[in-house]
């Protein structure tokens, strides 16, 4: 596994990046929250020094979820932890929650879901189906989002081919824990209506809308995201006691 831990705060956040990014996507936010949080930052397969697959079968949501479950086992040392995802990281987070529940292991105290969707089959991150044309779209989106240390383009293509027809809405009612949803009103990749689907499906969800914000809220709206996270985490008693130590 390719995992880095940063910070020494009482709250641990396992943060999952998007389809084309790496843990570098979280850097601005980790700096904004400083020492308030202990960050566990994995690179998913096909990124940086992580495992490389050989086709779409290696890049399913189930495969990503199994990796995050292993990260939690190996790197989370407290029951007071939060699972966070941005973009595709939301889909991976939902899949991980489903896996953890089935395994009967301790669940996180809360979720933070940003710029994501519970129904990827209704998004249009990419349109091409032929591998070469898909790689061209991947290159263009990588540049548009200004991603640092972007994922291998073949890995992105195989990931999209594997996950693009997923629908996780049936999982949402089972996730009865505090959830913060942060979404830009003008998100060009995960429509705002998908944030509303998350809010409607999750029993304890709170939707924070950043007006006029687009998809890249981690870097373009860092201060606002950090403020919303601080307020959310301080409202959860089991986390607040740790945070105040």
Helical percentage: 40-55%
Mean pLDDT: 94
Q: Which CATH architecture is right?
A: 3-Layer(aba) Sandwich
- Strands ordered across the widest β-sheet: 1-3-2-4-5-6-7
Description:
This protein has 245 residues and is α/β, with parallel strands linked by helices. It has a single domain, classed as Rossmann fold (3-Layer(aba) Sandwich), CATH 3.40.50.1820. It is built from 9 helices and 7 strands; from the N terminus they run ββαβαβαβααβαβααα. It has a 7-stranded mixed β-sheet, sandwiched between helices. Helix 1 links the parallel strand 2 and strand 3. Helix 1 packs across helix 8, helix 2 packs across helix 3 and helix 4 crosses helix 5. The longest helix is centred in the middle third of the chain and has 16 residues. It is globular.
Lay out the secondary structure.
Layout: E1 2-6, E2 11-16, H1 27-33, E3 37-43, H2 61-75, E4 81-86, H3 88-103, E5 110-114, H4 131-145, H5 153-163, E6 179-184, H6 192-201, E7 205-210, H7 217-220, H8 222-234, H9 237-243
Parallel strand pairs: 2-3, 2-4, 4-5, 5-6, 6-7
Antiparallel strand pairs: 1-3
